[in-house]
Structure formats: structure tokens, C-alpha cells
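agent> fetching stored inputs for the inosinic acid docking request
agent> found them:
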Amino acid sequence: MKQVQYNGLTFVPFISKEEIANRVREIAADIKSDFEGSVPLFICVLNGAFPFAADLFRAVGIDAEITFIRLKSYQGTGTTGAVKEIVGLSENIKDRDIIIVEDIVDTGHTLAKLLVDLKKLEPARIKIATLLFKPEAERNGVKPDYVGFSIDPRFIIGYGLDLDGMARNLEDIYVLKKD
Ligand code: IMP
Ligand code: MG
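agent> prediction call returned; pasting C-alpha cells
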């Protein structure tokens, strides 16, 4: 693997597609044993989680459904800040087992808000699968149930993760090169 450039920034190889594939298989096995017999609904958080969700969903190998949501941000006034709203969830999730699929949990703000909103819809269980986890998120009370890789708080791209919309189609994950 060689380094790549986007927006004049240089990124170096960080996690290979083989390492990703191995970890996805391991997480899939855990999910399979936790949800066998339940027909869970995977909720893929767009845009970044789509490659991970596609690979994970196929690897789990039990009866399951998948749907897709986005989170819409609004500019709040004053100190309210950005408010996020779920877009696109048309399924009735009451009494269902839910597996949220995220690309990365960084500060945990996104997931914390999503959890509050989903719990109002009274699902049976909500579990969180994230490919990447920056452990800072634990300070926001968000603890994913299935974590691919815990990483230092550095900026990464590839396998769904973007820099201004670019680099999502890289098969491997790259990290911003240190000067
Ligand atoms: P949060 O800080 O946990 O709310 O994460 C918000 C979103 O920031 C994630 O879902 C990603 O889309 C994005 N993000 C966080 N860290 C990175 C990164 O290292 N590379 C690309 N996107 C990131
Ligand atoms: Mg995301």
C-alpha cells in the first residue's frame, strides 16, 4: 500500500483490507451468537457506515433485515448548537432487536442523540456495532457493544470514511500523516 493524497493532505496506510475483513468476521460471529433466532434489524447510519454494514450484514449469516438512516443537522440558535434528527426510518421498530451500524464513534455525540431518539420508539434491544472507536467517546456515556478497532484520536479515511466526501471508496483505511 502506498500513501494517498486528498485536498493536499497526505495519508498513510493504517488498517489493511485483510485486517478489516478478519475483524468483520469476528464481530459477525459475536452478533450471530447474540441474535440467533431473533431476526434483528440492522440500522446502517449513512453515509460512512455503508461498506461496513454491507460486509457485516452478509457475514452474520442469520435471518435479519437492514435499513438505512441519515442524521440531519440543524443550526440551532444561541447556545443550543446543532440538533440532529433521524431521516428515513420507516420501519416500525417497537419490540424489535436493533443493531445500529456506525463507521466511527468519535466524540459519541451523534450516537448519544440517536440512542435517545430510537429508545422512544420502544425497540426490544439496541446494540451498537462500530468499525472504529476513539475511546474519548466513553466520556459521553456511549459504549458500543461491538468494536472493530479502538484507535487514537487521529483523522482517518477510507472504507466509508471521508474527507469532504472523498476517499470513501478506498478499500483500506489510511491515517493523516504526522509532520
Ligand atoms: P461523533 O463525534 O462520535 O459524533 O462522530 C461524528 C461523525 O464524525 C462520525 O460519524 C464520522 O462521520 C465523523 N468522523 C469522526 N472521526 C472521523 C475520522 O477520523 N475520519 C472521518 N470522519 C470522522
Ligand atoms: Mg458517520
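agent> quick read of the result: Helices lie at 17-35, 50-60, 109-119.
agent> awaiting further instructions
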